[in-house]
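re the bet — no i am not wrong, look at it urself. input seq straight from the record:
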Amino acid sequence: MAIDFSFSPEVEAVRLQVRDFMQQEVAPRAAAVDESDRDAWIQAIVALRRDAHAAGLWMPHMPAEWGGMGLGPTALAAVSAEAAKVRIGPWVLNCQAPDEGNMHTLLHFGTETQKEQYLRPLCEGRKRSCFSMTEPEVAGSDPTLIQTRAERDGDDWVINGHKWFTSGARGAHFAIVIACTDPDAAIPQARNTAFIVDTDSEGFELVRDVETMAGGHNHCEIRYRDVRVGGDAILGELGGGHKLGQVRLGPARLAHCMRWLGQIETALEMLVERAQNRFAHGSLLSEKQGIQWLMADSARELYAAKLMVLHCAYRIEQGLDFKQEVSMAKHHVANTLWRVTDRAMQVHGALGYSTDTPLAGMLQQARWARLADGADEVHQMRTAELLMKAYNDTGTVNAGVGNLPI
C-alpha cells in the first residue's frame, strides 16, 4: 500500500521540536506581553527569532540554499499547525503571511537581481513585505476587474490606483502590486502585471490601517499616486499578473489552512478541558449529551480538515493539479475554524465571551478566514464548476472529489 499517514522520523522529530519550542519558549513570552503594546510585541518576536534561528527552526517553507529548513508541503503542514497554536508562532519562525507567500513568489518568478535585492533580506528577517491586490471599488474575488493602472512612460512604468487590505503594509519595505497594464487585452486574465514597489517610493501613500471587527491588524489602505518604477520592477512577465496571483494564492490558501488547524485544535482542547471541569445542574458539562455532541461534531470536522490539508499538500508535493482540492479545503477548514471556536466559547459561557481567555480574540480572527483568499461562495462556485468539468470530461465525478483511488 502506498498510502501512509505517518511522517518520517526526521519530520516527526522536527514537529515535536517545534511543539516544545512553542510551549516552552514562545508561549510564556507571548503571555507576558501586553497585547496593546506593539513595540513590546516586536521586541519579543525579534528576541524569539534569534532563539528559533539558533535552534534550527527558521523558515520551514524555504529551501536550505536560502537559509530555510527545506521542508516539503506535507512536513510544512505539521510544523505550521504546531507553530500556529501560539499567536506569534509563525512570526517567530519567519513563516507568517504575507511574507511566506511573497517569498515563494519571488523564488519562482523573480530575476536573480530581484532575488538578491528583495528575497534575501526577507529570508534573513531584515525586511518585510506586503501583497497589494484587493481594491475597495471592485470585487476582490474577480482580479480581472482591477482598476489600478500601470502605464508605460519611456523605460519606466507609472502606477496610479487605490488598494486596501494590503496586509502587512505598515512596516513593510516593499509591496508586490498587481496593476492593469493592458485593459483591452483579448483575454481578461492577461490584463494585469505584478510590480515590485518600494514603500518609500514617491507617491506611495499608506492611508490607514483598516479597522476590522478584531481591531487594527495591519490590513492597510494604500494610494498609488504617479508611483514611478523601472522596467526591472516587473515581477514575472508582462501580462502575467493574474497567473502569478493564482500561483501564489493556491499554496497560500493551504498555508492558511495549515495554521488554522493549530487554532482549531487549541479551541477543541479548551472545550474539552472546560467541559470536564465545569459542574452545573447535577453533573459535569462533559456528561451532558448536548455538550458531547459539540465535541463529536468538532472532532469529525477537525479530522476531515486534517485529511484535506494532508492530501492537498501531498498533491502539491507530487506536482499534481491541486486547484479543486485546495478550494474545497479552504472552504471547509475556514468554516471549521469558525464553528469549533464558537462552540468552545459557548461551553465557556460568559468566561469565553470575556477576554480572560483567548477565545474572544480567536473568534474575531476566525471570521476573516471565510473571506480572505476567496470568499466561501467563490470556492463553492469553483468547486461546482470543476466537479461538472470532471464529470463531463470523464463520465465520473472522481476527479472532482480528490481523484482518490476509491
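see?? The longest helix spans residues 241-275. told u. also The two ends are 13 Å apart (CA to CA). so pay up
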